[in-house]
Amino acid sequence: xxxxxxxxxxxxxxxxxxxxxxxxxxxxxxxxxxxxxxxxxxxxxxxxxxxxxxxxxxxxxxxxxxxxxxxxxxxxxxxxxxxxxxxxxxxxxxxxxxxxxxxxxxxxxxxxxxxxxxxxxxxxxxxxxxxxxxxxxxxxxxxxxxxxxxxxxxxxxxxxxxxxxxxxxxxxxxxxxxxxxxxxxxxxxxxxxxxxxxxxxxxxxxxxxxxxxxxxxxxxxxxxxxxxxxxxxxxxxxxxxxxxxxxxxxxxxxxxxxxxxxxxxxxxxxxxxxxxxxxxxxxxxxxxxxxxxxxxxxxxxxxxxxxxxxxxxx
Length: 314
Description:
- The protein is about 45% helix and about 15% strand.
- By secondary structure, it is α+β, with helices and mostly antiparallel strands.
- It has three domains: about 5-50, no CATH class; about 95-155; about 160-314, Phosphorylase Kinase, domain 1 (2-Layer Sandwich).
- Strand 2 and strand 3 (about 225-235) form a beta hairpin.
- Helix 1 (about 5-15) packs parallel to helix 3.
- The longest helix has 29 residues, at about 125-155.
- It is elongated.
């Protein structure tokens, strides 16, 4: 530690406010530096003089002048002292209360308060008050249930966790430098590479003629299973296409009843989903959604043309 580091800490060291490691470093510097040692001794002497100085209490006249200069404070009035006639209910609250009273009046039994006896003068007794509070709570609960049902009916299936997993897999591959395990533009090289590494054979197509050049493939782990990922390049964008056998869950790990959306957006990435040739396909890229739609159309057309079947027959 040099003087530039020690000087700002001398004051706190004199008052024993430094952590033990910093205090030891400062003390070691003080022992080897005469200038900092003199400064530290001066600070310790000043601190001791301040603590030894006599304490003087402010005079009462000073306190009175300070209190007199403060704004007056109104004393709170107890609720029991305020006449009922002077208590004003906000208009909105009055409207709510009158609506509730009218609604309750239509249901109140003649003898008072939903079967409870009335008090003196025909007012509703404690049982009626209880009934009103209970019914109010019931109305609020029913409204909350109705709102929840309406929201659930309108809300589409939540694919948030699966979409997050897709984004994490895609980004992890890009930043790790291991985005491709088998580098090749030849589908006859990429497709056999998956043999023995997966329990299924993914269709592989080169779509360079459509603007989607095949660059290779890799293995990944998604939705609790090992999956094939085909890597395409569209202009300056990388498109990862995850392909695995189609199931009732649509590849999301849960039964969706076929309600998987065709396109999604997540954290600035476009995500597309479709089914073809008994496989579930999920594509993700930072390109526009139209690019993924073009890839889907081109891939389906190539698969329907029978290139995979021709390869199998040969």
